[in-house]
Amino acid sequence: MRRAASSRARSWTSRPPRVVGTVGRWLVLLLLTLSATALGQSAAVAATEQCAPTGESACINGTIRTAAGEPAVGVALTIEGEGQELAATTGPDGRWSASVTSAGTYSVTLDEGTLPAGETLRDPANNPREVTVELGASRPALFPLGAPAEQAPDAGDDDGAEGPGGGDQPDDAAGEPGEEPAGVGTSSSGGVTMTRFVQQLVSGLIFGLLLALASVGLSLIYGTTGLSNFAHGEQVTLGGILAYMGVQFWGLPLVVAGTLAVVLAAASGWFQDAAIWQPLRRRNVGLVQAMIVTIGLSMALQYVFQFFFGAGPLRVVTSTPTSVSFGPVLVTRQTVASVIIALVTLAAVSYFLLRTRTGRATRAVSDNAALAAASGISVNRIIRVVWTLGAGLAGLGGVLLGLYLGAARWNSGGALLLLMFAAVTLGGLGAAFGALAGSIVIGLVVELSSLWIPSDMRYGAALVILILVLLFRPQGILGRATRVG
Amino acid sequence: MDWTNLLVNVAGEIIAPTTAAYALAAIGLNIHFGLTGLLNMGQAGFLLLGAYGFAIATIAGWPLWAAVLAAILAAVVFALILGIPTLKLRGDYLAIVTIAAAEIVRIVGRSTTLTDLTGASSGLRGNSYKHTFQDASPFPDGTWELGPFEYAINASNSWWIRIVGWGVVALACLLIWLLMRSPWGRVLKGIREDEDAVRSLGKNVYAYKMQSLVLGGVIGAVAGIIYVLPRAVQPDAMGRSMTFFIWTILLLGGAATVFGPILGSMLFWAALMLIKLVMRGTVPETVMRSEQIEQFGWIIVGITLMLLVIFRPQGILGDKKELAINAH
Fold it and tell me: How close A289 gets to chain B, by Cα (Å)?
């Protein structure tokens, strides 16, 4: 491990301190710019997916909206067929889903008695309706409500109709099975207006800032241990889920629940290093092996989350947020608060890294672990601090992203993992400030690219950037040219 | 619990087409990782491209051989595009880039802009592309029974796909066995052990790595065809977790061995089925719902992968001296 770390340090992390100074100034500039524009737009509705089809199961799902477009809550449905009978009820967002374990044709019946008062099916002849599913897939069964006369032709694809703002949320576009049956977001069709551009710009900055909370931890861990932590996304999910637990199960106020979630997430980082990574370092398990261990851990954790919380979205706050407008853009108060929290936290982390003794020791370990150890720094203690800090930051990112995107989900962190890697690589692997800058760039790319390409491809745009960076500037935008091969 | 039925189900899983497809995908990954030391974390991308290539070409009316060729061509092009920027990178960079590339394939495939071609996130239905393969069968239609196993002869999840699938796996094994003994295979192993040493002997390491990536990717694409023939092309079913299952299978059986991927795949799917059936039979519905049993199975897979890599990185058949995961 030590040998690997030192050779790694030789190959890419050694950087003159001058660069850190430049980066620091750059960072301050960036933070100033951000605070000047610290606003954004509504996170609106959370998206999709309550059931995740696997090779052995399939999903039938849909969203029921009233004629006015509001989610219809508490509507009961029965799914029958292939020897199975299941029941489903729509949630607070009007969504329902059912998981079946064999392929075939199912008949879905909507109990009209449970519809909200005054609502009727637009097409009563279509109840019950037949749905044919294949394993590993999900199929929508749609029940449009409203007057029996023909309405707008697109009102039928209710799962896709997320309202005009639907394409703007950085939801689970890289998500796992079973969402967006059809018709989601070709937001490029509307043409690029100045207002939309500003809105996307602001959303991009906000998303990038929240993503930075998670990426900085990933980068710090990579910097000090050389480990590409594929389970870092699950730390983000953990933060979101803990906040959900705090608010929805234990009935705590949001601020208390959020703080508790961050503390527990940080503790999980401490514990993880103590239970897994430090013993592995002691066993001299190599970096690539350890990386595959993180992949296994990520898979196990994702399914643990799904095991206990199901595949549906976990809404941290169910009330409708109040919005404030800054010129042409509309943001919720929650988002404004989130942005301020993120800025303060990132500033505190910068202070920690640049000015405190432990922070300097952390950067020394990143630079050259062997040399740091030789100069009396306890490398293992620093790594423990970094794991705790990194997991805590990811947890905070998870809480804030959960609020911003509307809900946490078993794979919400996993879906963001590659964006984090893109951000970290863009900034130069292991450079904490680079990760911050990289996250902002990735946030902007994700949100702005949806002005020109279909919004369900925008996570792809960020990944293309990742590959291009590695092709032309593998040391990252802030790194110094060194050999990476 | 009905033990005979349970055993039949578990044994049926051993010869299932899915098991063959995963074994083949793991053989492809074995060329990348076991022989050359490339950390390809995007093998599912090759499978998905192969599946799309085959299905879309068939739907466009191409004959069977041309559709298979289209799948292979898609994999070759993808391997070249992927390899040019990445093969000069260090191991973990390669891992991140390959996983990102596979995600790009999936994101583009499930995008609504390509609905006409790929069917977006709902994918392509099996019936739209399996007829050329079924028509190629020399056997009469109907069902056939071998001991406790009864399947249709030609349709869908059939004996025909089993015969072809395992036939291709056997051919791939033969190929690996021959390659490992050839001078070409020895250069690959040399790259795995010490790239610089091979370079100093005047070999073009980059070209060898590229050939390895292309060959393993093509085998992956063929695995993709076998995987989708009994079902549908579903982009979300062929994402990151598929890659991770393939890795688990390869590391379980033993990387850099001829039969490791096959043993790994059979053990993986049979064990998973056994766990699920036993739990369905013994754990009451109130304690664990059926989809939770499913998830429990995947949790075990994740933990198995961790334990394998830590305690027995060479797998069941591998030789610890032969394979050092950390060569790169």
Answer: 6
In Å, how far is A430's CA from the nearest CA of chain B? 12
Residue B291, in any domain of the structure? no
Listed residue (B101, B291, B26, B15) closest to A55, CA to CA:
B291
Total count of domains within chain A: 2
Q: What share of chain B is helix, strand, coil (3-state, %, to 5)?
A: 75, 5, 25
Nearest neighbour of B294 by CB, restricted to A57, A418, A460: A57
The residue whose two tokens read 């598929």 is: B242
Q: Which of B87, B88, B104, B231 to mutate to test the interface with A (most CBs of A within 10 A)?
A: B104
Which of B101, B104, B326 minimises the CB distance to A289?
Answer: B326
What's the CATH number where A214 sits? 1.10.3470
CB pairs under 8 A between A and B: 195
Asked if the structure places residue A93 within a domain, the reply is: yes
Q: For residue B110, which residues of chain A lie inside 8 Å, CB to CB?
A: 456
* Beta strands at A138-140 and A58-63: parallel, antiparallel or unpaired: parallel
Q: Does B86 touch chain A (CB under 8 A)?
A: yes
User: Which chain B residue has the Cα nearest residue A298?
Assistant: B302
Does A483 fall in a domain?
A: no
CB contact under 8 A, B104 and A101: no
- Report ipTM for this prediction: 0.87
Name, in order, each residue with C-beta under 8 angstroms of B60's C-beta and a sequence gap of 6 or more. Answer: none
pTM for this structure? 0.75
**Domain that residue B228 falls in:** 3-239
> Is the CB of A461 inside 8 Å of chain B's CB atoms?
no
| Residues B273 and B13: beta-carbon distance below 8 Å | yes
Range of the domain at A141: 58-158
Residue of chain A nearest B239, judged by CA positions: A176
Between B90, B121, B306, which is nearest A296 by CB? B306
Both A27 and A84 in one domain: the answer is: no
Total structural domains within chain B: 1
Instruction: Compute the radius of gyration of chain A from its Cα atoms.
Output: 24
User: Within 10 Å of residue A338's Cβ, how many Cβ atoms?
Assistant: 26
Structural domain includes residue B8: yes
Q: Which of A288, A306, A484 sits opposite B39 (nearest CB)?
A: A288
pLDDT tens by residue, B60-110? 888 999 999 999 999 999 999 888 877 877 667 788 888 889 999 998 888
Tokens for B133, please give them.
């393969």
Q: Are strands A138-140 and A129-133 parallel, antiparallel or unpaired?
A: unpaired
Residue A189 forms part of a structural domain: no
B57 belongs to a structural domain = yes
Say if the Cβ atoms of B97 and A422 lie within 8 Å: no
Domain assignment of residue A186, yes or no: no
Question: Which of residues A158, A186, A210 is at a domain's end?
Answer: A158
Let me know the angle formed at the C-alpha of B32 by B26 and B36, rounded to the nearest 5 degrees: 135
On whether both A75 and A20 belong to a single domain, the answer is no
Do A228 and A361 share a domain, yes or no? yes
Here the CATH number for the domain that contains residue A73 is 2.60.40.10
Among residues A136, A158, A180, the one where a domain terminates is A158
* pLDDT tens digits for range A68-110: 666 777 777 878 776 666 777 776 667 777 777 777 777 787 7
- Given a contact cutoff of 8 angstroms between Cβ atoms, the answer to whether A333 and A402 are in contact is no
Cβ-defined contact of A299 to B302 (cutoff 8 Å): yes
Q: Are A8 and A142 in a shared domain?
A: no
Chain B neighbors of A459, CB-CB under 8 A: 103, 107
Taking contacts as CB-CB distances below 8 angstroms, the residues of chain B near A57 are 291, 294
- Same domain? For A31 and A87 the reply is no
